Amino acid sequence: MNIIYQLLDPEFARAYLAERLLPCYPAYKSLGEIIIRPVKQHIWEHTYHVVIEYQTELLSRKGQVLNLPIYASTHSNEPRKNVYDGMKFLWRHGFYRGKLTMPRPLFYSQQFKAVFYRGIRGRSLYEYIRAGEPVAVAEMIARTAGLFAKLHCLPVAAARNFNRKNSRLDTVIPGISHMNQRIKDKYPHLHSPFKKIYNIFIAAEKAFLTDPRHRWLVHGDAHPGNVIKIDGQKAGLIDFTDLCLADFARDLGSFLQQTQYMMRSNNFSEDFIVEQKDSFIRSYQASAKMKVDDEIQQRIKIYYYWTVLRTAATFLLKEKADPAEAEKMIRSVAEEMRVTF
C-alpha cells in the first residue's frame, strides 16, 4: 500500500499529529476533533502528490480550545524540504508580521516527504474574480502588490536558492527541452515559433542575471489563487513551493498576466483590467519605495509573455488539449515579440 494513505487514515493521523504538532503548541495538552479534508489527491501505486487539510482542535489544560487549519503538502518525487526551509527563512525574517502575512511553517517529515504548516483562512483573489466582485478585486490587487514588494525587499545575503530549477526560465519544470520535443511531435507547425520565442526570453533573462547583484527572493508561482484576503485588514501569500532567487520582475509579469487572463475569462471590462494593472504597479512602487522605470517594464513584459507561452504549452500538452486556444496565444506573443510565425 502507498505510504501516503497513512496520512489520510484518521487513527494514524491523530497519533502522528499528537506526536509532531503538540510540541509546536506547548500551552495545549491534547487534540480534540480532527477533520481530514484532501485538497489535492493524486495517488498512484508507489508515487503521490497530495495536499491535506486537518481541521484540528487543540485542547489546553484550562479547557481552552484552539481551532487550527493544519496542512500537509507532499510529493513523492519532489521532497518538500526546500519548501519548509524557504518558509522558515521567511518566518525568521518577519514576513508574517503586520497586515501582510503567510502560513506558519511547523515541521518537515522525511518519512512522507511533506511540509506541515498552519494555514490561513480566507478567500482568494481568484474566488473574488470568479464571483465578479470588482470592488474586492481592486482592493486585493493593490494588497497583492504590497505582498510582493514585502517579499522582494527581504535581504537575500543569507538566503539560499530554495528551488534552483525554478529560478531560471531554461530549467523551470517541466523544462524547455521536454516541452519543445512534445510540441514538435504533436504540433510541428507550432514548434518553430514556440522555440524561437522561448529562446528570446531565456536570452533576455540570462543577460540580466549575469550580474550577481540581480537576485531577489521571488514567489515563483504568482497568480490570484495564491493570494488570500484574511479579513478586512489582512492579506496573505500562500504556496511557497517555487520560492527561489531570481528577477523580481518575474512575479510582477506572471501575476499581471494570470490576473488579466482570469478577469477577461470572467467578463470584466477592458477599462477595469487596464485600471487594475496601473493600480498594481503604483501600489508596488509605493510599497517597494522604487520607480518601475522603462527597463523594469521591459523585464515585466518578458515574464508576462513567458507566462502566456507557458499557458499555451499547458493547453497543448494537457490530457484534454485545446490547440486552437494555444495557437491563438502563441500567435499573440509572436506578434508582440516580432517573431515570424
Read across the widest sheet, the strand sequence of neighbours is 1-2-3-6-5
What is the alpha-carbon Rg in Å? 21 Å
The CATH topology of the largest domain comes to Aminoglycoside 3'-phosphotransferase, Chain: A, domain 2
Could you tell me the strand content as a percent range?
A: 15-25%
Biggest sheet statistics: 5 strands, antiparallel
CATH architecture group name of the largest domain: Alpha-Beta Complex
Question: What gross morphology would you assign?
Answer: globular
**CATH H level, superfamily name of the largest domain:** Aminoglycoside phosphotransferase (APH), C-terminal lobe
Distance between the termini: 50 Å
* Chain oligomer state: single chain
Proportion of helical residues: 40-55%
Compute the average pLDDT.
96
CATH class of the largest domain: Alpha Beta
- How would you classify the helix and strand content by structural class? alpha+beta
Number of strands: 11
Low-pLDDT ranges = none
InterPro entries: Aminoglycoside_PTrfase (IPR002575), Kinase-like_dom_sf (IPR011009)
Organism: Candidatus Falkowbacteria bacterium CG23_combo_of_CG06-09_8_20_14_all_49_15
Protein name: Aminoglycoside phosphotransferase domain-containing protein
Pfam families: APH
